[in-house]
Write a structure and sequence with these properties.
The chain is mainly β and 559 residues long. Helices cover 6% and strands 42% of the residues. The two termini are 32 Å apart.
Length: 559
């Protein structure tokens, strides 16, 4: 990609009394040169120093890229960042160089034939050693640190990362940067530069998820919806859905989902889900949203109940949960409930790596939804994004993703049955067919137990057993014992005589104010053909009107 460097660079001859130098630096880690690196170029004379790189100088840098210019007369520096083809920003710092302090040590050595002295400083718990020479009539360094010591020829961080000069050249002309027309403060500069390094796809912004018969629009608009267009709501407002166009994502890139939540009236801990609705088969979860829960295929295991849309069939794929999260007790809305020495959070941020689901997103138009099960008119306020972070190099293998099951009743407020099928020994069974062998297959498994009384499965550890083709291949007991760590997100949590609060109690793989991480279960190499996967959980018996249920979801991932 061609860059606008020719616009930014002006070539000016050095003054008759000032010598111009170019120093090339390379980075190494643990004694080995870092492969495929972009060498640092430092241009310096008695009037100014410019920190750049070989790729920038050769017009090969990828966005964003950054350069620094130090003005020797004012002891200030300006940072200039080219964010993209159309936007360049800069910021000026007039104080930091003067504030740098070093311990000057007696050590000496020669680098590239020049006698060097040693200085040391500690920054953010990192020990930085600088080797500098005063044998040249100029100052400079490969970074902002040490600019006034002399000419820094080597920087060592924590004894294992080194930036060392490999060449010093005299040059006739000094490349000067033209300052950006857009100057911002230092904090804004860092923020804009950071955000330009990855792609952010906004999905929802301050979206209300509440229970209201006024929040049922969407059914008539579903078929005509366009990408990044209006947000559609279902299940009395407790589900928001929109169609999003995702760009191509290179294999090996890191993909993250983030959700920010605060109470808008509801004081309770609720199940939340940020999910994709696959539409690659004749039926999809959209049919249930548009036409009612009876439009979804039924699963039953002989316990007398019908479970809508929970397992994959030949003509249907269930939703794929990008993230399962749990709201805290009333964060923000109930922060007026004061306790001594407790400063409540304003919101809760859930952020999770979802890179393994790349093939469901890359280059596609996808239906993405968010749900918080609640019966409150005020409900909750959420924002959600997907961010894509490219990697410089990768050996990643493209994975196939096969949706299998999801018992999380996202359409609870439209009549979808709870995941109570585990009161039968058969539990949940899904049959799937592979057209081709699937190597290094894994089950991405999310599980949480529910039943909010002392004998309910929310508070009683229960074994989850996974069977492949009628053989148990994995089992574990999902349990969280760290729930007390999130007390400051739970202002409306009830307090008990024993000194604990409700949000402190350990639970079946979730806590109020946290997300639930997937478990990746090795299935080995699967041959082409039909396979059966079964989940068994010893679900507890109901007591009065109270009952237990399990929200589990799973997708098959392999090569």
């Amino acid at each position: 990609m061609k860059k606008l460097l020719f616009i930014l660079l002006l070539f000016a001859g050095g003054t008759s009394f000032s010598q111009n130098f170019k120093i090339t630096y390379l980075r190494s880690s643990n004694g080995s040169l870092i492969e495929d690196q972009d060498p640092i170029w430092v241009f310096t004379n008695t009037e100014q120093t410019r920190i750049s790189s070989e790729n920038i100088g050769n017009n090969k840098a990828t966005y964003p890229f950054e350069q620094t210019v130090i003005d020797r007369s004012s002891n200030a520096f300006r940072q200039i960042a080219v964010l993209n083809e159309k936007e360049t920003i800069s910021t000026k710092d007039s104080t930091s160089l003067a504030k740098q302090t070093f311990e000057l040590l007696p050590d000496t050595k020669k680098i590239l034939g020049y006698p060097c002295k040693k200085a040391k400083t500690i920054i953010n718990s990192n020990t930085i050693e600088l080797w500098y020479t005063t044998g040249l009539p100029v100052k400079g360094a490969p970074g902002v640190l040490g600019q006034n010591l002399g000419l820094v020829l080597e920087m060592v961080r924590n004894g294992n990362f080194v930036i060392a000069a490999t060449k010093i050249e005299k040059i006739k002309t000094f490349p000067v940067l033209e300052p950006s027309k857009k100057t911002v403060d230092a904090l804004s500069y860092k923020d804009l530069l950071w955000k330009s390094r990855f792609t952010t796809i906004p999905v929802f912004k301050d979206q209300i998820i509440n229970f209201s018969d006024q929040s049922t629009q969407g059914k008539a608009e579903l078929n005509g919806a366009k990408s990044n267009d209006s947000i559609l709501r279902f299940a009395n407002g407790t589900i928001a859905v929109r169609k999003i166009k995702i760009p191509e994502i290179k294999p090996g890139s890191q993909i993250f989902a983030d959700v920010t939540e605060q109470s808008n009236g509801d004081a309770y801990d609720r199940t939340g889900s940020f999910f994709i609705i696959p539409t690659d088969k004749a039926q999809s979860y959209l049919d249930g949203l548009q036409n009612g829960i009876k439009a979804l295929p039924i699963y039953n295991n002989g316990n007398g109940k019908d479970y809508q849309g929970v397992v994959a069939t030949q003509n249907y794929n269930p939703v794929v949960e990008l993230m399962r999260f749990y709201t805290p007790f009333g964060v923000k809305q109930y922060n007026t409930l004061q306790l001594k020495d407790k400063t409540w959070a304003d919101n809760v941020l859930y952020r999770q790596d979802i890179s393994e689901l790349r093939s469901l997103l890359s280059g596609k138009e996808v239906w993405i939804g968010i749900n918080i099960g609640n019966y409150d008119k005020g409900g909750h306020k959420v924002s959600a994004n997907i961010t894509i972070h490219s990697e410089e190099a990768t050996k990643a293998v493209t994975s196939k993703v096969v949706p299998l099951f999801c018992t999380n009743n996202i359409m609870e407020m439209a009549g979808q049955e709870y995941g109570t099928m585990f009161n039968n020994d058969k539990g949940l069974v899904v049959t799937f067919t592979l057209d081709k062998p699937l190597n290094n297959a894994k089950l991405r498994y999310i599980t949480t137990g529910h039943g909010g009384w002392e004998n309910g499965d929310e508070f009683v550890p229960k074994k989850n057993a996974v069977y492949l083709n009628e053989k148990e291949i994995f089992s574990f007991t999902p349990w969280r014992q760290d729930c007390g760590s999130y007390r400051l997100s739970n202002p409306a949590s009830g307090n008990f005589p024993n000194g604990l609060s409700s949000s402190d109690y350990s639970r079946a793989n979730w806590c109020p104010g946290t997300l639930t991480n997937p478990v990746f279960i090795d299935l080995g190499n699967l041959e082409a053909g039909t396979h059966t996967l079964q989940i068994k959980i010893p679900q507890g018996a109901p007591e009065g009107t109270s009952f237990s249920s399990w929200n589990i979801s799973g997708v098959l991932i392999g090569e």
